[in-house]
Amino acid sequence: MNKYFLLCCILVFQISYSQTFKNDSVKQFIDKSFTLIQSHSINVEDLEKIKSDLYSKSENLSSVDELVPLYEDVFQKLNDHHGGLKYKGKTYGWQKPLVSNNSYLKEKIKTEKTVHSKVIDKKYGYIRIPGNNDFSFKKVDSLADDIVSHINAVNSNKIKGWIIDLRLNTGGNMYPILLGLKNFIGRNLVFGGFKDAKNQPSGKWEIYQDKMLIDGVELEHKKALEYPIREAIPVIILTSCYTASAGEMTAISFVGRKKTFIVGEPTANYTTAVQGFKINNIAGINLSTDYVIDRNQKVYKNNVIPDFEIIGGDDLKNLENDHKIIKALQLLKR
Question: Is 103-268+303-333 assigned to CATH 3.20.20.70?
């Protein structure tokens, strides 16, 4: 009986992969994309079944144009909401619903696009850093220098602690954000990195001799701090359900730092490194390839959970009424 069952499985497998396609280019596109998924994705447990299902749905399609919308289901089955298929300028991926919602911050994200800083209670520095769209790495210096300029506008020997607000940071390029905040993160240390699906190191974030290296890429901001950041100065990181990707990685870079707490809402769960791979001249595929780790080697396969959870109560216009700011100040004063 067992041998018969095994034979049936083999026959079913062979039949599913010997389907006749109406258009050979459809099958070729699937095969090329799944070769890339197999080689690079962190989620390949059910890959053969996912491919077989896509074959079945695609055998009578006339063109790749008809095929690409089906990749939304592929990415859902891969459990990869950070990646997506790029085709003729459009993206086809899985839009996983957020576990929570914050209508106030959702509206603020639409209008608040620049860094904001101020002094609170005459002795606490506050800087709010939104997401960016520097996916081509053309603005690393300018974005990092803008953060440093805002730090300079607030910093002095009177500042006793800092609040770094990532609630509106929906992602983008993490390089300029980490570079701008380098002096807060620490000195001469490895403060994070990546591990692949086999739990092997695949990237390293470090600060050495006042230079930041992200996966071996050396970064150094052009604008200097006018007043040094004390190594042991207390720092509070604020997060929301919209803090995503680069925003989450920035928060993770502070995990394990002394006198540092994360306050706010669990983040959006985009804690994977994403890489792009070419399929042909008009298509490519972005895949989650690695998990983020913090300075203590903890792997983040899901979102960042704050040390002190504060849901809602946001008021960016009147920070003295903002519940997350109120909690942050309590911790700083303590």
Answer: no
CB 157 within 8 A of CB 168: no
Nearest Cα neighbor of 178 from 117, 253, 114, 256 is 253
CA distance 254 to 294: 8
Contact (CB, 8 A) for 147 and 212? no
Query: Cα-flanking dihedrals φ and ψ of residue 211, to 5°?
Result: -120, 145
**φ/ψ of residue 113, rounded to 5:** -115, -5
> What residue spans define the domains of the chain?
21-92, 103-268+303-333
- Most distant pair of Cα atoms in the chain: their distance: 80
Distance of alpha carbon 43 from alpha carbon 78, whole angstroms:
6
- Region at 216 (left for phi over 0; alpha for psi -120 to 50; beta for the rest): left
Per-residue tens of pLDDT for the chain, all 334 residues: 443 333 333 334 443 445 689 999 999 999 999 999 999 999 898 999 999 999 999 999 999 999 999 999 999 999 999 999 999 999 999 988 887 899 999 999 999 999 999 999 999 999 999 999 998 899 999 999 999 999 999 999 999 999 999 999 999 999 999 999 999 999 999 999 999 988 899 999 999 988 999 988 999 878 999 999 999 999 999 999 999 999 999 999 999 999 999 999 999 999 999 999 999 999 999 999 999 999 999 999 999 999 999 999 999 999 999 999 999 999 999 8
Strand stretches in the chain, DSSP E = 84-87, 90-92, 116-120, 124-128, 161-165, 189-195, 201-208, 211-214, 217-219, 235-239, 260-264, 272-280, 283-294, 299-300, 308-309
Give the position of tokens 């101020």: 118
